[in-house]
Design a protein that fits this description.
alpha/beta; Rossmann fold; 5-stranded parallel sheet; 14 strands; about 50% helix; elongated
């Protein structure tokens, strides 16, 4: 299998000294940047750039034939968005200021410091990638269409919010930077991560692991692997998931639960693209793209000093926030139909008719478990149906149990499920408001409204008649 080129567009080094070209090329290769081109004749520089515009250009100033300052002016005039790092023996501040004013991204003085060079190139690559992603996102938003709709086949939706997210996914998929996916339980975070991997076209595997509850030793062994004899029971070498995901994607689920010690190791992996197997004293380069997810707010964990600030910022280079099902209610009918078909096939039953009342009932429900909760309800109902109609009893019972549990939780915590008006309404007024709100949410369906209120349909009908007489 061919090694994946990083970055996808080459890094171009322009310098008349062969020793400098070799030295800088070697430094970048060792840092994991294996797509490097060199140019020792400044007269050929613009032709090379024209063949395939580089992601970053490292440019010397003092060269025969065409000096670096002239080349800098030509590049900025024709390729304004390519970051240019000046590498030169000149040390005067005036030269540096002039270069930066002319459009240079950074300025490094010879002899080149390896760490300084690698850090500058990585920063330039981030700028270049973000610029390309912004252009791609703008183009997709203008076109209002997806280039890879098949990548999102498992994410059934008619929601404009979700379609916007899909466009964003396509714009960032080819980036090598981390992606942080945040969403409530059951919103489809892993499906989005898989879609990113699919759109990226990476040749390696999509490898997923839930890091919640992993102590530091298990985390290190799972991700980085170990060598034979590293600890008692290590009878053979064991590659970690980071190696299995080479040229692919490593998805770390529930990153908010990661221990502080493991956070430090993950930060090094992201910053340096390096890791160390247990029992080995040399580092290896990672070729995996990292995607993480969480159902918690990392900002809150950061404020409580439970999550490192530097890691948080590094993880959220690209950030996706998945909407809960209650914010994409237009998808409920589509999902019910899909899950009913899947459940019928799995249980070897005929797909039952879905009553209209069910949609009214579920569109007024807040779905704390989101899509996964809806799927479980539909599967349970399919298992119980006998007369060709999907039974509403399963859904009403489930919703009633959830609301009863939540009400107990509010009572135990001393809280209330809604905010009281001031002045307080009378019991009569409050009852009328609750009934009217339930009927509105249920689309005037008495059966669905009664389920929301936790009373029988007959009791609701009596209350409605009483309200009508009083009006």
């Amino acid at each position: 299998m061919n090694e994946r080129l990083y970055p996808p567009d080459p890094i171009l080094i322009i310098d008349d000294e062969e020793a400098i070209l070799l030295s800088v090329d070697t430094i970048l290769q060792l840092a994991g940047m294996n797509n490097v081109r060199t140019c020792s004749d400044s007269r050929q520089a613009m032709a090379i750039i024209g063949q395939r515009p580089p992601s970053v250009i490292l440019l010397d100033l003092n060269m025969p034939h065409v000096n670096g300052e002239a080349i800098l002016d030509q590049i900025t005039a024709q390729y304004a968005n390519i970051p240019i790092i000046i590498i030169t023996g000149r040390i005067d501040a005036q030269t540096a200021v002039l270069c930066m004013k002319s459009g240079a991204f950074d300025y490094i003085v010879k002899p080149v410091d390896e760490n300084r060079l690698v850090a500058s190139v990585k920063k330039s690559l981030q700028y270049s990638e973000l610029h390309q992603e912004n252009l791609a996102l703008k183009e997709q938003l203008l076109q209002n269409r997806l280039n890879n709709p098949e990548a999102f086949a498992d994410l059934l939706t008619e929601s404009p919010k979700m379609m916007s997210l899909f466009s964003y996914v396509e714009s960032l998929a080819n980036s090598s930077e981390p992606v942080l996916i945040r969403g409530e339980t059951g919103t489809g975070k892993e499906l989005i991560a898989k879609a990113i991997h699919t759109v990226s076209g990476r040749s390696g595997e999509f490898v997923a692991v839930n890091v919640a509850g992993l102590d530091d030793n298990v985390f290190s062994d799972t991700l980085f692997g170990h060598v034979k004899g590293a600890f008692t029971g290590a009878d053979s070498d064991r590659p970690g998931l980071i190696e299995r995901a080479a040229d692919g994607t490593l998805f770390l689920d529930e990153i908010g639960d990661l221990s502080h010690t493991s956070q430090v190791k993950l930060l090094r992996l992201l910053q340096e693209r390096e890791y160390m197997q247990i029992g080995r004293d040399t580092t290896r380069l990672s070729r995996a793209r990292i995607i993480t997810s969480t159902h918690v707010d990392l900002w809150e964990l950061q404020q409580k000093e439970l999550f490192r600030q530097d890691l948080h910022y590094r993880l959220r280079t690209h950030r996706i926030i998945l909407p809960p099902l209650r914010e994409r209610r237009e998808d409920i009918g589509l999902l019910i139909d899909h899950f009913a078909q899947c459940a019928a096939q799995a249980l070897k039953k005929a797909k039952p008719r879905i009553p209209k009342e069910l949609l009214n009932l579920l569109e007024s429900y807040h779905f704390p478990g989101n899509i996964r909760e809806l799927q479980a309800m539909v599967f349970d109902a399919i298992a119980q149906h006998k007369n060709g109609i999907l039974p509403l009893t399963v859904f009403r019972t489930h919703i009633g149990m959830v609301r009863q549990s939540e009400n107990k939780g509010h009572a135990n915590s001393g809280g209330v499920p809604f905010v009281f008006a001031d002045p307080l309404p009378t019991i009569k007024q409050a009852t009328r408001m609750l009934v009217e709100e339930a009927m509105q949410r249920a689309g005037s369906n008495q059966s669905a409204a009664a389920a929301m209120l936790g009373i029988t349909q007959q009791a609701l009908s009596n209350r409605l008649k009483k309200i009508a007489k009083e009006s």
